[in-house]
Amino acid sequence: RKWVGGEVLRALAYDVPIPGYKTKNTISLRLWEAKAGSEDFNLFQFNEGRHESSLHLHSKAQQ
Fold it and tell me: What reaction does this catalyse (predicted)?
């Protein structure tokens, strides 16, 4: 198998503390959010009225 292509996204990690039941211990749950960079926004398509296609990578990163 060979991996071909892909998209580069920014990943932001959020650590959420989860308290234990009847104890002082906690564990961390790491959640991730994918974001497209601002350079992935196509201003030319946006100005031409093609708003959906200009935000293609942003909406794909949200899925």
Answer: [(1->4)-alpha-D-glucosyl](n) + phosphate = [(1->4)-alpha-D-glucosyl](n-1) + alpha-D-glucose 1-phosphate
CB atoms within 10 A of CB 42: 15
Q: What is the pTM of this model?
A: 0.49
Distances 46 to 14, 15, 29, 38, 61 between C-alpha atoms, Å = 31, 35, 38, 13, 18
Smallest Cα–Cα separation from 16: which of 2, 32, 5?
A: 32
Quote the CA–CA distance of 16 and 23 in Å, as a whole number: 17
Looking at residue 18, its pLDDT comes to 95
Mean predicted confidence (pLDDT) in 1-25: 87
Single-letter code of the amino acid located at 37:
G
